[in-house]
Design goal:
ten-stranded mixed sheet, 253 residues, 6 helices, alpha+beta, homodimer, 10 strands, 21% helix
Chain lengths: 253, 253
């Protein structure tokens, strides 16, 4: 039987999703909890990796097992043994032919920043601080250039092992919102898939465009003939959250 | 010369505001930074203590010093040496006769909770998780009972050294809000001053009233003839934030 989990995590203390040597990862932490709980080795397959320090509100993963526990009880059973910074939000039986990675149609990430005169420690854990004022119009102008099918090689860390650096971005927007701890500016991007560091470099390039360090023409060029020097900085992982994965027609909630 | 600082902090890693032996506190951390920066011992006087693990968006403190640095530059100078979980939001010269503790008229705290089927790690650092649904009407009904001048002895941890346990609560409300990471329920309370653990026990009592563990009549009794058994639980520090201190006619921003 194949099961699907929707998983949220605060990635601060983890070396990303994917299991690796000499570092604690989300995948490994959940696999260990599940293997112990079910008394058999469990191997998780996620929609994709998230990088070190990146968070998730809606990571999706599947695993194969034969369990006597009803599918909807798996979430609470896992949460009872998982650390507080990882939570399985729901568990269910996977639809026929479902694969958390291969069936994914779109992914939505949000990169959060906050602007002001001084750092606010209550915003700082999950958002990047920018000293000064925000010009949301310029940010949105820059972000709109990313929409479409492009070679994003210039937005990709060199350690990426991707076969192709061509990706499709469906939608981008910057929006402001006010929450209890302060005002935040969020960069929301939906795409077919993303390269290593790609969202953080898109967000940093839009920011550097607002700050006059990169021009709109640089961004256009960077997407037709990729060159790292045309794009802006890669913002730190703490501001990035994988919000949701779209599996239409499959829906999980 | 007397100076006023407005300070924000993530209290998670600190044993509260007030300097004590064998534990790192906010006061001590800022005093050390200031003493090093100014080359003379600096003693901070805050509006009041915050307990271990409690956060602040608008703690106010004064100190006396003779500095060549312009008052408004002190904030950035301190922030350059403070750890990222403490930030001085503003610095200015204190008005004549100002004392951060004695001049305080009102304080506003917010206790944050979130309701749902399962924990959300992205809400969990600064809010208390309650499994189930929220009945904001019952919470507000319970909270309204706290308004007025009462003996809050039943809401006070026994280790308090307060001379009197009578306090005045001016306003209370529960309200729901939606931020990026999820829906939150906040208990906002404004009072002349608060006893050790008082806000957390008021929030816990309102919650336990909603859950049927405490009745409105228990709460009324607890305020006329204090008895600990009449009130609900003391919620954990992580959900509590000192939002602002009212010094009218003095205003800092």
């Amino acid at each position: 039987m194949r099961y699907v989990l929707i998983i949220a995590y605060d990635g601060t203390e983890y070396a990303g999703w994917q299991t690796q040597k000499n570092a604690v990862t989300i995948q490994e932490t959940i696999e260990r909890a599940a293997s112990e709980l079910f008394g058999a080795e469990v191997k998780l397959h996620a929609s994709g990796r998230t990088d070190s320090g990146v968070h998730a509100l809606g990571q999706v993963a599947h695993f194969d097992a034969s369990l006597s526990l009803p599918a909807e009880k798996i979430a609470d059973a896992l949460n009872a043994v998982l650390p507080p910074d990882i939570s399985v939000l729901s568990s269910s039986v996977a639809p026929d032919g479902f694969d958390a990675n291969l069936s994914a149609k779109k992914k939505t990430y949000v990169y959060r920043m906050y602007f002001g005169k001084r750092r606010n420690p209550m915003c700082d854990r999950y958002a990047f601080f920018v000293r000064g004022e925000c010009d949301i119009g310029v940010l949105n102008g820059a972000a709109s250039l990313f929409v479409g099918e492009h070679d994003f090689a210039a937005y990709c860390a060199s350690k990426s092992s991707a076969k192709t650096t061509v990706r499709t971005v469906f939608e981008t927007k910057f929006y402001e919102s006010e929450d209890f701890f302060g005002r935040t500016v969020s960069f929301e991007v939906t795409g077919g898939g993303f390269l290593y560091n790609m969202v953080r470099t898109m967000a940093g390039t839009a920011l550097d465009c607002m700050l006059g360090k990169v021009t709109a023409s640089d961004i256009e060029k960077s997407l037709s003939s990729p060159e790292r020097s045309l794009v802006g900085r890669t913002l730190p992982a703490k501001g990035l959250t994988l919000v949701s994965v779209d599996y239409s027609p499959f829906v999980f909630a």
